[in-house]
Design goal:
232 residues, alpha+beta, 4-stranded antiparallel sheet, 3-stranded antiparallel sheet, 3 helices, 7 strands, 39% strand
């Protein structure tokens, strides 16, 4: 994850002077056909902003586009990707800051939650749900629904604590995005076993539209979503 953050931050440093949209000489190449220029431009955008761009079934044929239309499309798409890149950096930084503060707080220590040999078996199955907004083409424009289900029990002092985490899931809830793929999940048990910190990582799919038609789908990887699930 730290490698992803470093990569994205280094890309932002290299693109701070791009707001005038002059970073792509291939956009203005006089010898390229519109189709070639479009393909080259999209590849450059993918590399620069660490995204994947796929042509939609409803996209106009590249051969039917003029050079001006191609340049306009690439410039407009990049303006959205610049904002989305910053949103992704802030997302990673927020998670890293949360984990740093959590580790410094002492809440990671679960030594006070040891159960006795005679502790009752898991007594209840509880689910917790959390919604979080993310987005590249539309920052914070897509809501993701995350959930976990776990068993609770009693510790040696009679407190309700987590006994185990039995399942988790995440999916697209609402907003601009058209798909969400969970790529990783991890968790920590804190607060004397009273809290699970659930961490989801995934890829968001968003449509890029022009004149009401979807031209491309943009896939941004490595989004962090996390929440604290309490046993009571």
């Amino acid at each position: 994850m730290k490698k992803i953050v470093k990569k994205i931050i280094s890309m932002v440093l290299s693109t701070t002077c791009i707001l005038t949209m002059t970073a792509f000489p291939a956009f203005a190449a006089e010898t390229s056909s519109p189709a070639d220029r479009l393909e080259t431009g999209l590849s450059q955008l993918e590399e620069k902003y660490d995204v994947t761009i796929k042509k939609a079934p409803t996209a106009r044929k590249a051969s039917a586009l003029s050079l001006e239309e191609v340049n306009s499309t690439l410039t407009d798409l990049e303006s959205s990707l610049i904002k989305g890149q910053q949103a992704r950096i802030e997302n990673h930084q927020a998670y890293e800051q949360y984990m740093k503060e959590l580790e410094e707080s002492g809440r990671m220590d679960t030594s006070d939650s040891s159960t006795t040999p005679n502790s009752p078996a898991p007594r209840a199955l509880i689910s917790r749900i959390y919604y979080h907004s993310i987005g590249t083409l539309v920052p914070n424009g897509t809501s993701i629904r995350c959930s976990m289900t776990g068993n609770t029990t009693s510790d040696a002092y009679g407190n309700t604590v987590w006994a185990s985490l039995s399942s988790h899931s995440s999916r697209l809830n609402s907003g601009y995005g058209t798909d969400w793929t969970e790529t990783d999940f991890s968790y920590d048990l804190i607060d004397g076993r009273r809290t699970y910190v659930c961490h989801f990582i995934g890829t968001l799919e968003e449509p890029y539209k022009q004149s009401g038609f979807i031209e491309y789908y943009v896939y941004s990887e490595g989004w962090d979503i996390w929440f604290e699930a309490y046993s009571t």
